[in-house]
Description:
CATH superfamily of the domain at 3-170: Tetratricopeptide repeat domain
Largest sheet: none
Shape: globular
Radius of gyration: 25 Å
Order of helices and strands: HHHHHHHHHHHHHHHHH
Helix content: 55-70%
Low-confidence stretches: 330-349
Mean pLDDT: 85
Amino acid sequence: MSAENHYLDAIEALDSDNREEALEKAYKAVKLDPEHVDAWQIISDAHLTADGKSANLIDASKSMAAVKQIVKLDPTRIDMWVRGGRLLADELGLMFDALEWWQQVRNHAPHEVTPLIEQATILADLGLYKEGRERIETILNENMDVATSQYGRVHQLLGLFNNAVQQNDSEYFKPWEKRHPGWLAIEAKMRKAPVSETTIFMLVTVPVLFGVIILSNFIAGEGLVAFCLTSVVIFIAVIAGMRFTKNMFRTVNKPAFNLLRAMNFESSTGYSVTSEDIRTSVLYMYILQRKPVAWQERMLMIIEEKNKLPKNWQLELPDFESHLDEIGQIDDAEAPFWESDLAEPYEEE
């Protein structure tokens, strides 16, 4: 039986939601023809659930392995590059690997905006605001084509980075620093779950709206003019309440966001930086339970291994200019990013 016939059987099985049979047939197809791109995609698809639930660690890893085979055989498959980036960052928590992955996309598609946006998002999650702003500024400086659906995200990231870089660098929470003040803030709030944005909005805005409605009867009176005036005031109050809520949400839950950054750092490096007291707290469990299954399983493995962050650990980022060599703007070969001096070493205090 040929590889193509096994592939067709795999499609039929996957359409019938028989994932085990689809995988069996697809693996037979790639065994006969290792360069069968479509069969590799069936393998990646079948390892991911169709009902929206996150895959476990084994399935997410196998799906990622298939994606690597696909882009190796056909680097023009932007959809598979996107899937790989999301699997690395969101499902597996390998953010530094995801940064390198998106840089590889730039090597094959240097004019694509998505890799820059994804890199900027990851850098923001890691608290590397200066590097993240450079990614967004590259989009603007090179006058790259931004899809309408991406304008809002670019504008939001740029605003975040501009606000962050104006602050003192010492205020950024650095989880790799054992004695950073951010750890004390986490310990102070670790016994409670974070406050939801909806709760803050209800506590702040609803009383104001209720007061506006009551006072409107005494001040504006009745009639169409009074109704229009009251409606305008309510609209302004809602908009102001939403903006105030967003700012308050970030301020009140800053320790939770700091702990999330520490957990992302642990998942990305494989090193444990969180104390046992914090790790068994209500806040830690609240965040962990809302992560994908593969992410949770991998984090539990990191916790069990108890690998401490080395004192000589260095922050290593990809060479964000490596794609220029692909389009002929760099003549001399450069050293790989892990041998470069782009990043200064960070040590525990």
